[in-house]
Each structure stands twice: as C-alpha cells, then as structure tokens.
Amino acid sequence: MTFEYKIADISLHEAGRHQIRLAEHEMPGLMSLRAEYGAAQPLAGARIAGSLHMTVQTAVLIETLVALGAEVRWASCNIFSTQDEAAAAVVVGPAGSPEEPRGVPVFAWKNESLEDYWWTAEQILTWPGAEKDPALGPNMILDDGGDATMLLHQGVEFEAAGAVPEPGEDDPHEYTIVLARLRASLAADPQKFTRLAPGIKGVTEETTTGVMRLYQLAEAGQLLFPAINVNDSVTKSKFDNKYGIRHSLPDGIMRATDVLIGGKVAVVCGYGDVGKGAAEALRGQGARVVVTEIDPICALQAAMDGYQVAHLDSVIGQGDIFITTTGGKDIIMAADMLKMKDKAIVGNVGHFDNEIDMAGLAAIDGVRKVEIKPQVHEWVLDAGTAAARSIIVLSEGRLLNLGNATGHPSFVMSNSFANQTIGQIELFTKDGTGEYAKDVYVLPKILDEKVARLHLDALGVELTELSGEQAAYLGLDVQGPYKAAHYRY
Ligand code: NAI
Q1: Do 363 and 248 share a structural domain?
Q2: How far apart are alpha carbons 63 and 66 in whole angstroms?
Q3: Dist. CA 295 → ligand 1 center (Å)
C-alpha cells in the first residue's frame, strides 16, 4: 500500500535503517516496552499525530508506537532538526521498499521554510477520509514544544469566530505564517479543526516550553483534552535536558565551528536543567564558564558549582561563546551582539528562536550575512571600517544541538521516549474512565521509576533492594515508589 508523505530523499532509507538498528541497541527502554506490550497491543486503535524532531532516535520511538498497535503520522517540530535518512527509513518501514513503502507517513526534511513547517504541522492533523468521517482522524497527539497542540487550539478558536484575525504589530513574523496557514485551511474547510478536536483523547508533551503552554491553556480553562507533561518526569528533564545537552551542545558547536573550546570564556544564559548540562559540558572541555540567571536559587546553585555568575552586560566583551538555555525571550539582543568580540560564537538550545534577537541583528545598519556552511553564518558588523568584525551565529538562533548536530544520543532519548510511550498508553487506554480531566498531569512516580529501571541493566548497574524491615522503617513499599512527590533529586 502506498501513502502520501513528503521527505527529502527516499533513497537514503538504507543509511537510516542502519542507524536505527544501532540506535535500537542503545534504547533499552523502548525495546523493553516493545517486548512487554507487543502482544497486548495497548495502542491498537490509536491514531497518533506526532510532532517531534525527526531524528534516528525518534524513528525508534515511532516504530515502538507502531509495534504497540498505533497508526502514526509524523512531522518534525523544528525546521532544521530532521535527519533525512531517518525520515526515509521510517517512510519505507522495516518491511517495505522505496517503490512500495510500508512505514509511516512522514512530512519532514532538513531545512524547511517556515511556510513548509506549518504545512507539515497541518499534514499530521490531516488524515485521509477524516474530512467525511471524523473517526478516521487523529485521536492522540504527541508533541514537542506544543506547535501541533497550538495549531489545533487556534484552528478551533478561529473556526468558531468564523475568521482568522490579522496579525498584531507585535506578533513575531512566524505567527503571521501560522495565521496564513489557518486562513487557507479555514477557506478550504471551515470546520476542519472543530470536527477533529472532540476525537482527541489527549496529548503527551515532551519539553519545558510546550508544557508551559499547556499549563497556560489549562489555567485559562481552554485546554481541549487531557495532557501528560512528559518533561517533568524525573527520567526526562533530569536526564535528557541535562545529560543530553551535555553531549549534544559541544557536538553542535564543534561540528559547526571546529573551534577549540578549552581556554575560551563561555557564557551560559540560564542555569535550569539545560543550562546545568551546558555549563558542565563547556567546563569539561576546559572553558571558563560564566552563568547568567534571574532565579536566585539557580544563581546560587551555579555559584556553588563553581561558576562565575554575572550580568550578561558585565561579560559581553569577554565571552568567546554565548549559549542561551532559558526558554524565555530576548536574552541576547542586537545591542549585545554589537559589543561582542570579533568571531564570538552565538547559539541557542532553548526551544524557540526568540532567545536571540535575529530580527534585530539583521536590521543593524550595514550588517552582512555570509553563509560559512548550512546553519553556520558569519554576521559582519561595521563592514569597511577600522572596527570591522564579525560574529558567528549557529542555526539562525534555533536549537543548535539539533541544527548543527544530530541532537541528544539514543540512550538518553530512550528515557524520554519511554515516558512518551507510557504516557500515550496511559491517556489512550484510560480514555473515558474519568481518571484524566482536561488538565495537565505528570506520570505517577512508580512509572517514572520503571523507566529508570529499564535502563539499569544496560549500564551494569547493581541496584540495592530494600529489605522488608528497612521498607517498613522508611514507610515505603519494597517495590517503590521510593520518594515523595515533592522530592527534588
Ligand atoms: P528550566 O526552567 O529548568 O531552566 C531555564 C532557566 O532559565 C531557569 O532557571 C530560569 O530562571 C532561567 N532564565 C529565565 N529567563 C532568564 C533570563 N532572562 N536570563 C537568565 N536566565 C533566565 O528549563 P529547561 O528544562 O532547562 O529548558 C530550557 C529550554 O530548553 C526550554 O525552552 C526547553 O524546552 C528547551 N530544551 C531544549 C532541549 C534541546 O535539546 N535543545 C532539550 C530540553 C529542553
């Protein structure tokens, strides 16, 4: 059976399949979930619209969801993060061929335009036949950053209003493109999202930024279905965000610039989970790391971990490498970039590209952008004057660890994606039981501990078992959970 898809090059499928095979070995969490649930098929009947970086690791997640019974359509959640060979292998599927693909419809390629990106986001919500029979549409969302969830919510809102508003003056450029996509959609089918929304049983959300958007919707009473906050499973944010970045941030900087990190001054904006991993990695390479923070607790943590904590302004002329990790906006502005050293490197690993003022940079008088190679740009400032110098911006201010490298490695993503899979099973199989209302939930701790357990053997970890007496003394069950909900790890 053939199906629609849009990827860069299906002939890359073999290269992708080899990488997926190696990744499976490094993803014991996902592979044990396949073994545990493969026969029971808990996701039979689930039709999952997935929006998450289309990498090799995500391919293993997608094929796990399929192994558990789900039908899936997929897009990336970032214009630069797709690994084209992984996308090709997922489309072809383990048993298909390029002529007769039997995998999953994927709509993703590296280096999408923003217009392409929002088209792919709509494609995962557009299932064949659903325009006539909503039961053929998606009934679950798996999101990273919340774009698929946002598109659906805005679609419903504008369809109810009968029109898509004009963008406001302060709206970012990208939002203009979202509105244009919704306008086209509404013109073609005025009830598309309204028909779709009641069928959605829930969403599982991968990252800090997407979770923040979900809590805002829930607080406003606007969340249309239950949500599981995968990010705040301990085995997600304390592993992927920290240890994942510790690996993929230096990987991205090195592949992009090949600059020696040792001896340089690296400024890390934000000392949350991602910032902690970033700072540790850069220090591990021999950089002198300076942290900026707005939260006194995180600032104190950074100081106790041995980092200088300073205002960005105090170190703007000293830094060789600047990395934003805040999930906030307007962290490094054009005026800051004007004060940087010649050839300073600027990059972001927070979810969205608004941490670095790219529009402001492009608007600087006389600035010139030189492409060194894809996703690595030199911005020449004060060209033609004695003060001429340039800065290097990675991935146009978007996630550099995915744009300039291949994102987090498999083993850490196995933890995150085991949480995603369990979250999907939880919301799909408990639909209609009343256990989950239109609110945001984290997975029960016992399941979080289960995800960790699935990864111990592969590392040769010997886990000590509580005796019955010890358990009784601590007021715990021998099988866990071992910590109260408020414990912070
Ligand atoms: P977090 O909330 O733990 O950390 C963010 C930190 O930034 C906080 O400590 C906050 O106080 C600080 N901050 C906020 N505004 C600031 C400002 N103006 N200046 C300095 N510090 C500021 O969040 P987490 O989990 O570290 O995630 C950060 C971002 O990274 C999110 O957008 C998240 O979605 C994204 N992320 C990216 C990944 C990647 O692969 N690149 C992986 C995981 C998360």
Answers
A1: yes
A2: 5
A3: 11
Best probe residue, ligand 1, of 322, 325, 489 (max atoms within 8 Å of C-beta): 325
Q: 28 and 168 share a domain? A: yes
Q: Which pTM does this prediction carry?
A: 0.96
Report the C-alpha gap between 31 and 54 in whole angstroms. Answer: 19
**Residue 234 belongs to domain spanning:** 10-238+408-448
Please indicate whether residue 207, judged by its CB atom, sits closer than 6 Å to ligand 1.
Answer: yes
**Which among 76, 230, 326 is the best mutation to test ligand 1's pocket, defined by most ligand atoms within 8 Å of the CB?**
326
298 Cβ below 6 A of ligand 1:
yes
| Contact call for residues 150 and 117 (beta carbons, < 8 A) | no
Average confidence (pLDDT) per 10 residues, the chain, 489 residues: 88 98 98 98 98 98 98 98 98 97 98 98 97 96 98 98 95 95 97 97 97 98 98 98 98 98 98 98 98 98 98 98 98 97 97 96 95 98 83 98 98 98 98 97 97 98 98 98 96
**326: CA distance to ligand 1 center in Å?**
3
Longest dimension (CA), the chain: 77
The answer as to whether 476 is a domain residue is: no
Is residue 15 domain-shared with residue 63, that is, in the same domain? yes
Q: How far, in Å, from the CA of 275 to the mean position of ligand 1?
A: 7
Helices (H), 45-113: 56-67, 84-92
Q: Are residues 162 and 272 in the same domain?
A: no
- Residue located via tokens 């357990």: 453
Residues 229 and 320 in one domain: no
Q: Which two tokens stand for residue 40?
A: 């029971």
Same domain, 224 and 293: no
**34 plus 107 within the same structural domain:** yes
In a domain, 454, yes or no: no
Q: Is the CB of 399 under 6 A from ligand 1?
A: yes
Q: Give distance in angstroms: CA of 208 to centre of ligand 1.
A: 7
Q: Specify the number of domains making up the chain.
A: 2
Closest C-alpha residue for ligand 1 atom 4: 272
In a domain, 55, yes or no: yes
Q: How far is CA 364 from the centre of its chain?
A: 31
Structural tokens at position 301:
């943590």
CATH number reported for the structural domain that contains residue 257 in this entry? 3.40.50.720
Task: Give binding residues for substrate as ranges.
Answer: 55, 144, 206, 236, 240
269 lies in the same domain as 332: yes
Specify if 458 maps to a domain.
no
> With DSSP H G I counted as helix, E B as strand and the rest as coil, what are the percentages for the chain, rounded to 5?
45, 15, 40
Select from 241, 290, 404, 410 the residue to mutate for testing ligand 1; criterion: most ligand atoms less than 8 Å from CB.
241
